[in-house]
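[[Encoded backbone]]
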Amino acid sequence: MAPMAGITSLPYRSLCREFGAKFAFAEMICLNAIIYNNPATKEMLSQDKHDSPVGFQALTAVEEDIPRALDMIPYFKYDILDFNAACPQRKVTSKGRGAALMQEPDKLAGLLKACVAYSKVPVTVKLRLGWDNARYAVDLAKMCEDCGVKAVFLHGRTRSQGYHGTVHYEAMAKVKKALTVPMIASGDIFNGPLAKKMFDETGCDGLLVARGAMGNPWLIKEIEEHLKHVVVLPRPAGHEVARVMHKHLKMYVDFFGEQDGVNQFHKFFAWYSRGFHGVRPLRDKGMRVRGYDNFKKLIDDFEAVVV
């Protein structure tokens, strides 16, 4: 399970583990926020005894931030330190972070070497194929390997594509062929057949599921079944979707409190309910509903419509 801002909180990671996720990342963390004791950042790094194995993904463009920030989070027990050089968001790249570092390979190399030198756990890197083309994707990935990373997480688009356009499987396959460390692939893994296509066309060593699991934790099982038996599982029935929504909502209210939990669940209701016939009025209401009891009633109404 990939790190996703505002999504891969502790309760969502726990839910996905119940559905078969073998590994989950916490949300991407700006190291500067740790250094300045941002309270929201500490909440993002909450854990329980079942939250393992888990990854910590770091975002920074300053080498000195790495040892300073990592020393400040002894309470978060992570198994992998992943360095983000892939985030395409302008608010990130405008500060020289995330995907912007692909344009400064020497700087990226220094940051990765600092991570490797200081980290007590294996260091990985998250990359895209490039800034606006994949011309130097192999060179960049090999440079990261030479810096000591133990795996490369590769999204199959450039930064300029964002999350639009097609995934470039051929370019990803060239990166995989050039590396000796594992390459974990991401991009458009929305169902079992697309997961198999990623393996078949890139030769990747594993998959990093992201947007496909938004409102669809069943995706993990769907992928496993398709890879093992080449079957396509049917979409979960409405009553099953409602059951999981009730569970997910309660987990969010228990963790974040009623107001914040309900507010954060608005987007999940939209994702869970998409594609069902006759639920448009409920989806509109789902973006405005307030209160735990009112949201439970809305989920019940959804179930009554779709069953």
